[in-house]
Amino acid sequence: MIPRTVWCLLASFGMTMSSGAQSVVLELRPRAGDTVAVRLEHRVEMTGTRRVGGRDSVTRVASSMLTIGHTVVESVTVAYALVATHTDSVALESSDDSDGSMQENARRALRGSVTRVRILPDGTAETVDDGSDAPRASWLAVMPGTLPRESVAVGARWTRTMPIPNADGRAVGSGKVRATFRLDSLTAGGRYAWISMRGTMKRDSSIAGAEAARGGPLSGAMTGALKLDRKRGWVVDSVTDMTVRSVMPAPGAPDSPMRVTVRMVQHMSAAEHD
């Protein structure tokens, strides 16, 4: 696991641990038959504020999920790698005591589940399972199209944009996520690439009809970093910290909307399976 203090210092000062400014290719190219043990930590903190009777009413809920599993590279082609993610164990916690049954149902649904994903060299992940009700587990913790499509040198930056998805996961085009990545350093003779990320998201208030009722204006910021093992062609550590602010209409109280702030932190670490 990467010491986060060291990681943050490297990203902040742009330090490099290798000499020269050679360009390198950054790709996900795992080998067929590889098995990777994965640990995924996911924390969410939500604060909702409404104006009630001339005073602010504040609600706070925090939850966390720890998932342990393994990923098997089933096949590899020039265009993609087909991997199967197996959920071996799940631990859930929440400050909301009323959702105990929901937590248990989630544990049962996730534990022992298998999800197959097609991974493209640039990090794009495409789920290939036929069953629409199959549980989803974000093992790789890599945003779609994270890696550059051309070779880059230390210090290089590249930008990716994507629509903000709505509640059912469809990209509706009413908002945009924009993330800028930077190759901060190469270590171990170029084997490990350390990449940092900063991004923003925004959805304006010009959304019409039902989409406005579900979403409304939204803004946020995110930071993150990942460590790519270029020899294995795999992301071996990543962290993402995202804060999103939105305004949600309150049922029966259109003049008293809820201001919602959600912070999500996700940390993934991977190692060769014993």
Task: Label this structure with key terms.
about 270 residues, mainly beta, Lipovitellin-phosvitin complex, beta-sheet shell regions, eleven-stranded antiparallel sheet, about 10% helix, about 55% strand, globular, disordered N terminus
Task: Describe the overall structure.
The chain has a single domain (25-272), classed as Lipovitellin-phosvitin complex, beta-sheet shell regions, CATH 2.30.230. An 11-stranded antiparallel β-sheet has the order 5-4-3-2-1-11-10-9-8-7-6. Mean pLDDT is 80; it is low at 1-19, 131-142, 167-171 and 208-213. Helices cover 10% and strands 55% of the residues. With 274 residues, it is mainly β. The two termini are 17 Å apart. The protein has 3 helices and 11 strands.
Short description:
With 274 residues, this protein is mainly β. 10% of the residues lie in helices and 55% in strands.
Query: What would CATH call the architecture?
Result: Roll
Top-tier CATH class: Mainly Beta
Strand segment tally: 11
Q: Output the strand order for the largest sheet.
A: 5-4-3-2-1-11-10-9-8-7-6
| Largest pleated sheet | 11 strands, antiparallel
Shape: globular
Number of discrete domains = 1
Low-confidence stretches: 1-19, 131-142, 167-171, 208-213
Q: Quaternary state, please?
A: single chain
Structural class: mainly beta
Alpha-carbon Rg, integer: 20 Å
